[in-house]
Amino acid sequence: MAISSVSGSNFSTTKLMGQLRLAFSDPLSKEGNVKKGLTGKFNFIQNRLFLTPDARASSKETNHVTTSRRVGNRFSAKVNVTLEDHTGQTRKDAGFILKKQDDKNYLSMSVSTKQDVRFYRVVDGEKSLIKTVSLDEQIPKNFDMQVDVNNSNFDFYLDGEKLLSAKDSTFSGGELGFGSFRGLGSFSDLEIYQ
Hints:
This protein is an all-beta fold and 194 residues long. It has one domain: Jelly Rolls (Sandwich). It has 1 helix and 15 strands, in the order αβββββββββββββββ. 39% of the residues are buried.
């Protein structure tokens, strides 16, 4: 699958987002609306949330933060992401944690500098791959990442272009999170539509 808009912030409204209303908006410039995940650390610097993953984490997806509010089964969320270059890591991943029940039960959608998008299910701490899509082009350093969740249907977007669609009905509702699963990442301008 190709990425046609590989530079700049080209965020556009998806069909699902057009049916919902803005329920939550946070520039991510200070503490208050996010809480730490299982591993990693976060800091607010120059109006961005910087996430530093714990490289020793047994599951890279545990390096995330979650929002202070739970989301249902029908929502759209987007956040601006910058994958930092100075970490020395060749693979950098950023993504969403979806329908998180607890630290051992959630879904994960992520994009990687190794040119793929992956959708995982974690049940009782055991991770299984639901779907992966290879990309023809390198992802940009800075991009808008978005997910649409409509009950058991999931769509993942990068700069407004749909890169992955999948289905999973394991969990109902839960927390929404995001993170830099590998490599230092920074985030801003979180929006959630419900």
